[in-house]
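Sequence and fold
=================
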Amino acid sequence: MELYEALIKAFNECGKDIVKTNVLVNVLSDFHALDKATRRILQAFVQLGFGESLYDIIHDDAPDKLLKLQVYEKELVNQGFQEGHVSYVMNSLLYALGWINCPPEPLDTAKHYDWSSQHVDLQVGDCSFKMVFVRGGSFDMGGTPEQGLFAAFDEKPSREVILDDFYIGETVVTQKLWKNVMNDNPSHFIGDELPVERVSWDECGAFLNILNARLNLNFRFPTEAEWEYAARGGITMMGNKYAGADDSNISDYAWYKENSGGCTHEVKTRMPNELGLYDMSGNISEWCGDWYFNSYAYGGTKENPTGPSVGNARVYRGGSWNDKAIACRTSKRSFMNPTYRNKQVGLRMVMSNK
């Protein structure tokens, strides 16, 4: 069932005098066939106060009523939702209300929309790379229900985390970028567009310091919370087990032991998650800034947590080419001495948006 058909049915069954936000709550509860992203956008409409305004706008014959609704469309795009998907939801609503005459074109859920407006394009030597804007928000970090019985003891208890805005690398750091900054290449698998690996946490810290000096910016390791929030899709998250995927389509989104052929692969050769980020599940694991602690029971601050102040091992996330698919889950945690190298571990950068 197309979204506009579901909306029309809801309006017909409930009447256009339905109180406040219930018009969309009914749609969400009655039409479970709607894809997760569409329902997430509708939920955001409600959170922005759209339902209450809809009740008033339906009865408003003012010529600017369409402009009033478009305010919500712009706000959702600003929050990081895909523009094409938001337009589809908006046009479905307008058609259901009878304010436009043609139903929207069916949404191609496999299409990846242009996220260039959310990018910062940067250049070092002959290497260009992108940093993707991530709108801050709150989420439940750790072994949430979709992780099932695979959630380990150190992913529990799940806890609410609140994050500020940040930028994160569209891809992991490639060998080409590493060579342009460090003038060497420690990787086991060689190729400019392959992830850099066999880099210790300490060496990655040196890389970030040199890159900051060259570009006069503020690159750093992601915190565990930032990494997991971005992997899950940020404000657009759909509740998947993996970054952008679930068990049925993980091979479309990740390189892991069962499909990698025993090696890393060039970045951006699998599908991205909801934020347009590649390889957050699989291909190469990624260092985080946090010291490892074996429980979230004493997770410290709720806002922008950075982990324990001391420790013996640093966290890395995401799973790799040599891990089984289940080890590529968004909440899966791993750790290693910060001086160690491993051909399964590399780096994805975060940049302050201040």
